[in-house]
Amino acid sequence: SQTIHQWPATLVQPVGSPLSLECTVEGTSNPNLYWYRQAAGRGLQLLFYSVGIGQISSEVPQNLSASRPQDRQFILSSKKLLLSDSGFYLCAWSTGIGKHEQYFGPGTRLTVT
Amino acid sequence: KQEVTQIPAALSVPEGENLVLNCSFTDSAIYNLQWFRQDPGKGLTSLLLIQSSQREQTSGRLNASLDKSSGRSTLYIAASQPGDSATYLCAVDSGNTGKLIFGQGTTLQVKP
Fold first, then answer.
1. For the segment B19-46, what is each residue's pLDDT rounded down to a tens digit?
2. Inter-chain CB proximity B98 and A59 less than 8 Å
3. pLDDT surpasses 80 at A80
4. By the CB < 8 Å criterion, does A73 face chain B?
5. Do B100 and A46 lie within an 8 Å CB cutoff?
6. Are B28 and B83 in contact (CB under 8 A)?
7. A36-39 — which CB contacts under 8 Å span 24+ positions?
8. Residues of chain A positioned with their CB less than 8 A from the CB of B31
9. Rounded to whole angstroms, how far apart are CA atoms B30 and A61?
10. Is A40 helix (H, G, I), strand (E, B) or coil?
11. Residues B17, B40: Cα–Cα separation, whole Å
């Protein structure tokens, strides 16, 4: 069966510091991968998606970036965090074919102070 | 641009009641619609997925329907239990990359 991992689970970072969040998927090959952010009172917003290694599409202009160095690894990064980057970051995967059913990881709670 | 709306934003019901959660979307050209459950501080759990060619899907006490022409979906929960208390999110997939557009969610409280 497939599983999706995210780490760290929680993170408190000062403004201006760098960020790296990691997501890995097990039990599937060539998944579509997604990064979402859930900010208080704002709902879930798609940030990036990837249909293959090195293929990243950005949905929202911001100071965040994403990379996919391996087939089942998706990384969210920032060089300098802003207060507005605080939120709950969720990684998800789908098969990319057929139903496109998405499965979500446990999330990372990021607080920028 | 696709927009997804969920009504009501919050709902409180006594245990045992049957209830309906509503989801509407502005562009009927969808690939599928997915319902999720989110417990506080947790990730999303997929409940049901309805493909554009389908009218409904059922899983246990849950039944989701889809009316593409009117841009609506409903999630029916039968015989609600306190363990059903959570936020329920609907999301629409409009294309071939699987990108989801989410509603704001309905927070359900089932009282014992």
1. 999 999 999 999 999 999 999 999 999 9
2. no
3. yes
4. no
5. yes
6. no
7. A36/A89, A36/A90, A36/A91, A36/A92, A37/A87, A37/A88, A37/A89, A37/A90, A38/A87, A38/A88, A38/A89, A38/A90, A38/A107, A39/A86, A39/A87, A39/A88
8. 100
9. 25
10. coil
11. 22
Cα-flanking dihedrals φ and ψ of residue A18, to 5°? -80, 165
| Planar angle of CA B108, A106, A49, nearest 5 degrees | 105
Contact A69, A77 (CB under 8 A): no
- Are residues A44 and B97, on separate chains, in Cβ contact within 8 Å? no
Q: Which residue has the higher pLDDT, B1 or B49?
A: B49
Test A109 with B41 for CB contact under 8 angstroms: yes
pLDDT tens by residue, B56-75 = 999 999 999 999 999 999 99
- pLDDT score, position B98: 79
- Whether B93 and chain A come into contact, CB under 8 Å, resolves to yes
CB atoms within 10 A of CB B8: 11
Interface test with B, best of A6, A46, A100 (most B CBs within 10 A): A100
CB within 8 Å: A43 and B105: yes
Q: Tens of pLDDT along A14-44? A: 999 999 999 999 999 899 999 999 988 778 9
Structure token pair of residue A51: 């249909």
- Nearest Cα of chain A lies from the Cα of B45 at a distance, in angstroms, of 7
